[in-house]
Design brief:
It comes from Streptosporangium amethystogenes subsp. fukuiense. With 635 residues, the protein is of the alpha+beta class. Helix 1 runs parallel beside helix 2, helix 6 (201-212) runs parallel beside helix 8 and helix 7 (245-251) runs parallel beside helix 11 (294-311). It is extended, with a radius of gyration of 35 Å. 37% of the residues are buried. Mean pLDDT is 89; it is low at 1-25.
């Protein structure tokens, strides 16, 4: 790393007073650009997080007219880290656009990263993002953002992505500039921040960059960027009115028009436009619309209507959820837009009131549901319509076999749906209630209202349907209803009881018993094996079982095949999920006497017994060969 001397110069460029550290470096991987304006309380944490990054970097801090004493701290850092931290000073511009552009003009790294002075990076952030970029030749790398009292995007950070297509992913949902950008791409296409904007300048910049990025990557398994809310609320985005709906809708036209100039009509353009309609246009018809006054509501609706007239295609409409399609039809009806905003913003209050088994493996689920609109707004009367139970298989994909819709009878005050558990595949199924309010569907997990409950009610007993067990249960701590088909997370209640044991020819121990699951007798083909498990070594021996229609079973075990040790007896069953094992219960009166025999010069002894306390069948197998016999006599 080659470094020259520190030079302080006054320049007349743009009327800015610049303190510049001139360095000749050919190995700068990342230039971190930090716009600074009155962030002294946070500056130390920010710069420290940058200096510990294990990459070849330079930090360009553009002091945008700070007056809080942060300049002295900045000079101290620059003097202690010459060749790494460079300081550029200019008069206050009022926004982050100009200082970021000035920082770009001083950048020398292969990549640039923008970091606000009140935020900070994880210790391995740049190392991981740079490694991703170098592996794939990335033009943009998104690193996972973590919010500290700030909302952050999450949809694009589900998993790492070496190369993610712009048109078939959620990366365009994130239009902040807190990313790693290839500097050559920025320079070649003259990608810069809009200095006329105080809010949204990074949206314009990032939109332009996405349009020219050939390779986009995502680092999702590490907390790269920490977005911090200032306790005093003095940052631009925290100031009251910073997201004024009308101003935002007018601002967002710039990145949309910029994107349209670069992306031809088709699926990709519709995918990108959907983001702007869903998050920017219709997002302001939600809670911001309720906060607005009567006049402003008309202005918001007019701006959204104009955007729809200009850019709403059939491809975009098809990608929108039902509530946004309802809004499009209601843009001239302010009262309906208000009701739709209430429907979207309100919570769904739901309560499970009854749960019972009916015949042939059908589970009746009853409950009630209502829309709890926000109290601080005028609360219109909104009546629920079509009702259904929706069961979704946990940890599954989005295929048709992973969701089952069950129509419900009744109304919101009392509804009932009957679930045929034989239609559910093996796994965990979470139960939701779906209700339509003015044609807009809302979905919520169904469970008990925990207010006033000291403990969750006891769910109904498991039910064996054919050779599958269904176990209703309530999740903790929220008390929501789920169905475990096959016994994946809920222990299957059952018992295998020894009725009689006897010795047969060949030193075989014959066991006769009875098996139940819950209160029912399982199907004969559900009982698989008699399993003997040796306690110390965990070795296992399986033997087939004969089962009767009444739940009786018979198993034979040639005890000489077990080998020396203490063996515990289980009955293993296949109930549609992981193998379910029940210890065989026994009382001493049912246990056969020990047996001893000789096999060649070795004496075998087998002692079946019932364990103390719970009374479970076990057996001790011992062998005594000539050497052991002689050693015992000599000792």
């Amino acid at each position: 790393m080659a470094v020259t001397t520190l030079q302080r110069v006054r320049t007349g460029r743009d009327g800015c007073d610049i303190t510049r550290e001139e360095a000749i470096r050919s190995d700068v991987d990342v230039t971190v650009i930090v716009p600074l304006h009155n962030c002294r309380p946070y500056l130390d944490r920010c710069l420290t997080s940058l200096l510990i990054q294990r990459v070849a970097l330079e930090v360009v801090v553009v002091d945008d007219g700070s007056t809080d004493g942060g300049a002295a701290l900045l000079d101290l850092y620059a003097s202690c880290h010459r060749g790494v931290i460079r300081v550029v000073r200019q008069e206050a511009s009022g926004g982050a656009g100009r200082p970021r552009n000035v920082g770009l003009s001083h950048a020398r790294g292969r990549y640039v990263f923008f970091c606000d002075a009140d935020d900070y990076l994880g210790p391995q952030a740049l190392e991981r993002m740079l490694a991703m970029a170098d592996r794939n030749g990335s033009d943009i790398v998104l690193g996972k953002i973590v919010g500290h009292d700030r909302k952050v995007p999450i949809s694009m950070f589900r998993e790492n992505a070496e190369r993610v297509p712009l048109g078939d992913s959620a990366v365009y949902n994130s239009l902040s500039c807190f990313k790693l950008f290839r500097r050559e791409m920025l320079e070649r296409h003259a990608i810069r921040f809009d200095e006329t904007l105080l809010v949204g300048e990074d949206v314009v910049f990032t939109t332009h960059a996405y349009c020219h990025a050939n390779v986009i990557s995502v680092v999702a398994d590490y907390d790269c960027y920490h977005l911090v809310a200032r306790p005093d609320g003095t940052s631009i985005m925290q100031r009251q009115g910073s997201r004024d709906p009308v101003s935002w809708l007018r601002m967002i036209r710039r990145p949309i028009e910029l994107m349209l100039a670069h992306v031809r009509p088709g699926d990709l353009r519709d995918h990108l436009l959907r983001r702007h309609f869903r998050m920017d246009a219709f997002g302001n018809l939600g809670r911001p619309f309720l906060d607005a006054g009567e006049v402003e509501r008309k202005e918001i609706a007019a701006e959204v209507a104009d955007m729809c007239e200009r850019w709403l295609t059939d491809g975009v409409r098809d990608r929108l959820p039902a509530i946004d399609r309802s809004r499009i039809a209601a843009l001239e009806d302010i009262d309906r837009l208000v009701r739709l905003a209430h429907i979207e913003s309100a919570s769904v209050r739901r309560e499970l009131t009854a749960l019972r088994w009916e015949r042939e493996g059908r589970l009746a689920i009853s409950g009630k549901v209502a829309l709890s609109t926000l109290e601080r707004y005028d609360r219109p009367e909104i009546v629920g319509g079509d009702l259904a139970l929706v069961l979704r298989r946990r940890h599954a994909g989005t295929g048709p076999c992973d969701e089952v819709v069950v129509p419900a009878t009744g109304d919101c005050a009392e509804f009932t749906g009957v679930v045929d558990v034989t239609a559910l595949s093996s796994g965990i199924w979470d139960v939701h209630v779906a209700v339509a309010f003015e044609g807009v569907p809302r979905l919520a997990r169904l469970g008990f209202d925990r207010d006033g409950l000291t403990a969750l009610p006891v769910p109904p007993a498991p039910r064996v349907v054919g050779d599958v067990v269904a176990l209703p249960y309530f999740t903790r701590p929220y008390g929501n209803l789920s169905l475990d088909i096959g016994g994946h997370v809920v222990a299957v209640p059952g018992s295998a009881r020894l009725v009689r044991a006897r010795w047969a020819a060949g030193h075989r121990l014959v066991l006769h018993g009875e098996v139940t699951v819950g209160t029912a007798v399982p199907a004969a083909d559900a009982v698989r094996y008699l399993v003997w498990r040796e306690r110390e070594s965990s070795r296992e021996r399986r033997e087939p079982v004969t089962v009767g229609e009444d739940g009786t079973f018979t198993a034979w075990q040639a005890m000489g095949r077990l080998g020396p040790g203490t063996w515990d007896a289980y009955l293993e069953m296949d109930l549609g999920g992981p193998p379910a094992r029940f210890r065989i219960e026994a009382v001493p009166e049912m246990i056969e006497q020990p047996r001893t025999w000789w096999r060649g010069a070795t004496r075998w002894s087998v002692r079946p017994y019932a364990t103390a306390g719970k009374g479970r069948l076990s057996t001790v197998v011992r062998t005594l060969g000539p050497r052991t016999f002689v050693r015992r006599i000599v000792c």
